[in-house]
Amino acid sequence: MRVATRAKTQSPKAKWATRLVGAGLTAAVAVGLTASPALAAPGPQYDAAVAPTETDLQTNPFCQDIGLGSAVQNTTGENPSGSGQLPLPDGSTIDFNIYPNNIDPVTPDGQLVDFSYSTGSTFAAAAVIVKGGPRANVYDYRSLGSGSIAADTTLHTSVNPQNDKFYGISHIVFCSVKTKYT
Predict the structure, then answer these.
(1) Are the C-beta atoms of 53 and 86 separated by less than 8 Å?
(2) H/E/C letters for each residue in the chain?
(3) pLDDT tens-digit map of 32-46
(4) What pLDDT is recorded for position 29?
(5) Euclidean distance between CA atoms 116 and 107, whole angstroms
(6) pLDDT at 94
(7) Is the residue at 42 inside a domain?
(8) Do 31 and 57 fall into the same domain?
(9) Kindly report the CA angle at 50 between 151 and 63, in degrees rounded to 5?
(10) How far is 98 from 76, CA to CA, in rounded Å?
(11) Within a domain: residue 17?
(12) Fewer CB within a 10 Å sphere, N or C end of the chain?
């Protein structure tokens, strides 16, 4: 009876060459992943009612881009600062305040945004988009029981991966809807 044996297909030199090529490819992939540009991140939630999500849009996103085409859209001017008001169709206003981020020692630079709808408003925010740098953070309140919110605090832009600080605010978009409780 003849027993089959496995034939040697590679010489010792060929095996080492294969191992070295494999090690080289592994190192190249590791270097490529390490050297690839870091992605921005939405950043912390702080005291906001919902966690921010970052948009995939590279342009300036608006209400229709996040599925709120029927919302009343109010946009601040470019590079807003300090306090301001935006008018609503019912004569009420969206009051907002932009201030330096002094609450987070890890990400001390950048700005935070608080907003509220004036007393008697028949509108509330279904979402707020805070744009800065090449990305934008979306605070989507549709997941809340009421589907909207009349005030929120500590909203911010995405984190710049180059310096781990918030991007400067280029503009803010409020997507307002009629409240269910008017």
Answers:
(1) no
(2) CCCCCCCCCCCHHHHHHHHHHHHHHHHHHHHHHHHCCCCCECCCCCCCCCCCEECCCCCCCCHHHHCCCCCEEEECCCCCCEEEEEECCCCCEEEEEEEECCCCCCCCCCEEEEEEECCCCCEEEEEEEEEECCEEEEEEHHHCCCCCECEEEEECCCEECCCCEECCCCEEEEEEEECCCC
(3) 333 334 456 888 888
(4) 37
(5) 25
(6) 98
(7) no
(8) no
(9) 75
(10) 11
(11) yes
(12) N
Q: Considering the entire predicted model, what is its pTM?
A: 0.76
Strand ordering across the sheet containing 111-117: 82-87, 93-100, 111-117, 151-155
Share of the chain above pLDDT 70, in %: 74
Residues 99 and 13 in one domain: no
Beta bridge partners of 54: 137
Domain count of the chain? Answer: 2
Place of tokens 């990400």: 107
